[in-house]
Amino acid sequence: MITAGVDVGSLSGKAVVLDDNRLVSWGLVPTGPDSAETAKEAMDIALQKGNLSLDRIEFVVSTGYGRVVVPFAQRNVTEISCHAKGANYFFPGARTILDMGGQDCKAIRCDANGKVVNFAMNDKCAAGAGRSMEVMADLLQIPLDEIGPRSLQLDQGEVAVSSTCTVFAKSEVLAHVRQGAPTNDILAGLCAALASRVYGLLRRVGIEPEFVISGGIGKNVGVVTRVEQKVGLEANICFEPQIVGAVGAAIFARDTLVKQKKPAAAR
User: I need a surface site. Which of 85, 115, 208, 211 has the fewest CB within 10 A?
Assistant: First the structure.
C-alpha cells in the first residue's frame, strides 16, 4: 500500500512516500509563489528517489498553509494533527511536540497513538518562527546555518533582544551592531528570545516526556539547546525535522485507504 503526504509550508514544500509503514523517499524544496507548483516539485523529487510514478500512489493527503491547492491530493489535514502523527511515527513515546516552522510555532500534546490532546500556537508574528532567523541572517550577513553554532560561542555575553515583532527586533539588532556588540552575542540573544517565546507555548499545553522538536528550527542548535535547558528534557529530533508533517500526512493517507478497503461489515 503506497501512500504520500505533502506539506506545503510558508518557506518549504515537503513530500514523503510510504509503503505501508516504511519510509520510501522524500523531497524538500523552497516554497515558490505557486503553492501547487511547490507541491508538485517536492512530490516529483520524492517519486524520483523512490523510482515511482504518481499513478503508483494510491492516496495522497496534503497539509500545511498550501494544503487546499495541492491538485493531486484526495484529502487535506491540519498541520497540527500531521505533526503529532509524524512525531509519533519517528518517536512512539512522543507526548510533547514543538513544531518550529517558517511563520509560526506550535506546541502540541498527543497521546500514545499520535492523536492531538492539546495545542497552542503563535501565528501572530514571524518573530516566533524561522522566518525571523532568515531575516537576521540577511541583516548580519552570515549563513543561516551558522546562527545556531555561533550563538553558543559567546564573546562578552548574551545581548538582550526583547522585541516580539520581527520589524522591531531588526531595529533592535541594528542598534546593537552600531554599539559594537559582537555578532555571536547578538545571535545568542536572538536564539534565547525565540527559546523563551516557544517555552511559553509549551507551558500552556503542559510538558510531558518524550519531547520532540520538528520543523526547520530543529536544525538550529542554538535554539534547541536553550529550549532543552528551559524544558529540562532532551529533545528528540529525527534525521530531517522538516519532513515530520509530511510523514504524518502520509500516515493519514494510509489510514484512510485502510478504512476504504475494509468491507462494509467489518467497519
Answer: 115
23 and 48 housed in the same domain: yes
- CA dist 109 to 113, 183, 220, 243, Å? 11, 36, 22, 19
Cα 243 to Cα 9, 42, 175, 247, 252: the distances in Å are 11, 11, 37, 6, 14
Consecutive sets of 10 residues in the chain, 267 residues long: mean pLDDT of each? Answer: 96 97 98 96 98 98 96 97 99 98 91 98 65 90 96 93 77 92 96 92 96 96 98 98 98 96 64
Q: pTM (2 decimals)?
A: 0.93
- Longest alpha-carbon distance in the chain: 73
Backbone torsion region of residue 264, taken as left when φ is above 0, otherwise alpha when ψ lies between -120 and 50, otherwise beta? alpha
The boundaries of the domain holding residue 65 are 1-91+243-267
8 Å CB contact between 87 and 94: yes
Q: Are residues 115 and 219 in the same domain?
A: yes
Q: What is the Cα 222 distance to its own chain's centre? A: 16
CA–CA separation, 191 vs 172, rounded Å? 14
